[in-house]
Predict the structure.
Amino acid sequence: MPDKVRAVIADDEPLLRAQLRTRLERLWPELAIVHEMANGRDVEQVLEAHSPELFFLDIHMPGVNGLEAARTIGSRAHVVFVTAFDQYAVEAFERGAIDYVLKPFNEERLATTVGRLRERLSAAPPAFDALVEQLAERLGGAKPAEHLRWIKASVGPQVRLIPVEEVLYFQSDEKYTRVVTCEGEALIRKPIRELLEELDPARFWQIHRATIVNVDRIAGVRRGLKDQAELSLRDHPKTLVVSRAFTHLFKQM
Amino acid sequence: MSRFAYLFEGLTVRRVLAVTVICVAAAGATRWFFTNTIFELLLIALCIGYTSTLFFTIATNLRLGMRREVRQVLAIVLGSFLGTILAGLARGFNISHMLTERLWGASMTMGLGIGIGCVVLAAAIIRERQARDEARLHRAEAERQQLEKSVLEAKLQLMQAQVEPHFLFNTLANVQHLVETDPPAASRMLDSLIRYLRAALPQMRENSTTLRREIEMSRAFLEIQRVRMGSRLEYAIEVPPQMLDLPFPPMMLLSLVENAIKHGADPCCECVAVTLRASQADGRLTVSVADTGQGIVPKKAGGVGLANIRERLKTLHGQAARLVLEENQPRGVIASIEVPMPDAALHAPPLVRAA
């Protein structure tokens, strides 16, 4: 027993964990699956508790995914990635000589991987931080959130979720900010000033001390009273006042 | 000065040239009537013409309560009056002289100025109306084309494969395992997959199917996900049987269910419940997908499929249909589609809620 290779399987789908375990046990009797996990969250504890030499990591897992888990593991253990369909990842693995298996599993392919792993395990785990880093960036989809994409607004007892693209304009109304869409309006507590900081400035322009407009929804601009301008909106009868400080936005348009 | 610059907007070289031409023509045309020389007439005509044009331009741009046409006529009257006096002054008469001895001549001149001015104004208004009508027609045409385009896009979107390879391969891997360990379960899973694929693979689809078909497709998808996710997913379908044969637009419900899994259940490590419900009230059918997953992350995009559903609902039903997203309590999202019911369905017997 102490001679056995200690391995951990991480996959969020229980049947697929069971399947990999069964197949590995058949192909590699000297392997002991010491732990199974549904995501990469507890990698640190698992390393400590079981000191595994080998991880099978599914790339797509909720919470902490396989690439993030691999980053945590570093060169403390060998890593084999498991994936169903990631053209880009597979190419990167091939280039970087990183072990991977594809789901659904192919018996022969898995046997080849096992053969290679047996040889490699005697050496120190290779460092492929850079590649994992690059992959995590490409696949993780965990790009830092930049702008507000959803507005949560109270409509009666419900909290309505409004994608910002649907908003025609925001207008401050004493204590609240009115969110106006084609289908009606809702109130939020976030003041215009804070909205301005969070919204995409390319899509949302302030046109008045109290108004932010969705540029995509502007139908036309015309001169208004004094030095102001008036905006008409697509699919909405209301016209918005552009105060003097903001009329420069519409010059030469 | 620049503060008042807007008042002179429209006072273009073209307008001044046009007025000059009209004045020359007017001077020529009234030559037989007056005893003056042609140069005197031209001077008078130009004085009236230019003064009227100046006032006309200001009156057009001035924002007062009264109608624009009224302002313009008043400007022509005032312009003609001042223009006549100006012309008189230019010829060396004094004002009192003009208003007494030469009153007849001055009035005639002024009257002609007003008459010609009003004719020109009327012509301009008619031309402007025509241009506006044309622009309106043009805009309507553009809108129609835009609508046609979005209908076409929606159709194309429908025809495209909606099956993600990731989903397909993972499901097959599950089936592969079940074949060895639990053949009846494998068979059930394959059955669900086939039902899902039949509906989700590209093919020409009608604009409307029944709620039954959409529910069955969603059920197949949810069943696959329940097997895959094990204890992390539960689902329930609470749709009264008599609503199943109501028409419902295709591929929208499945999109909402897929969203509930992808954005609600997938990123969430605890057990998530997905519930499909249907209800009818006031001639509207509402079908909702509620999940108890992670909920909306304010700064994360997730609305591409939703924008597509909105667009398609608008194409099919205009303002009568809508997609509403709400927060679920204590967690997750409720997405509901409301569509108008066909008239026949309005007279359906009262509902009994099915278990």
